[in-house]
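R.M. (postdoc): so does anyone remember the format we settled on? I'll just put the structure tokens first.
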């Protein structure tokens, strides 16, 4: 007996049928439908301010000391961002630089570091922000994927706060971005949120909202996985 075809109509193009499978059993057919829905959701989802989002461990990474990394972001004003990163696990087994005087510092990604990438919804240029447990920070401007890098001197120093317990580490960062002409205040912004977590054995793992195929690359367009509207 021929198994009925599974057909769905695309919401964007109501007259276009989308066929998932016509040979699977009922159980496999439903699983294929769920996978397709998840794939569509990863491409572009609107971020609900204040909602905690799980960062995914890169398939080639492992970290025995960390079980979860999550992030929250909000846009209290049109030109500001509030970020919060949560690490759950055996915090004593992580390499966390001690808090020191906040200062702009390069190559923070070589050790435990939390990162945010921001761009307008359409556009190749973007900003990268790095926040270390030491409260050191960095800000860069790129004209396209890993190209045209320069230090973003127009960024005022962020406020960074940390909190730690045996099972949870939290880093909060507050950014004022209203001096950035390439980030219109009345437009939606596309964000990539990520983290490099280093343990005491100096092994690093890589976490992000989404990962492109291949090696970890937080600059890749696939990593700009959420959108936040103007306040």
């Amino acid at each position: 007996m021929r198994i009925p075809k599974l057909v769905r109509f695309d919401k964007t193009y109501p007259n276009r049928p989308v066929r998932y499978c016509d040979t699977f059993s009922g159980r496999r057919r439903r699983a294929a439908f769920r996978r397709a829905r998840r794939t569509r959701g990863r491409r572009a989802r609107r971020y609900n301010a204040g909602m905690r989002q799980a960062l995914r461990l890169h398939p080639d990474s492992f970290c025995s000391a960390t079980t979860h990394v999550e992030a929250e972001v909000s846009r209290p004003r049109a030109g500001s961002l509030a970020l919060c990163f949560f690490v759950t696990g055996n915090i004593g087994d992580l390499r966390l630089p001690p808090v020191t005087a906040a200062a702009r510092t390069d190559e923070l990604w070589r050790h435990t570091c939390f990162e945010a990438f921001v761009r307008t919804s359409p556009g190749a240029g973007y900003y990268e922000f790095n926040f270390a447990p030491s409260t050191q920070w960095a800000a860069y401007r790129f004209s396209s994927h890993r190209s045209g890098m320069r230090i973003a001197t127009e960024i005022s120093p962020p406020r960074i706060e940390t909190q730690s317990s045996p099972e949870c580490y939290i880093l909060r960062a507050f950014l004022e971005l209203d001096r950035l002409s390439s980030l219109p205040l009345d437009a939606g912004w596309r964000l990539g949120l990520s983290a490099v977590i280093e343990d005491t054995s100096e092994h690093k793992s890589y976490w992000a909202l989404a990962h492109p195929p291949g090696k970890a690359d937080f600059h890749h367009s696939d990593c700009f996985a959420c959108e936040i509207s103007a306040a």
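R.M.: ...and that's the designed sequence above, right after the tokens. Also worth knowing: Confidence is low (pLDDT under 50) at residues 1-26, 28-44. The longest helix spans residues 26-43.
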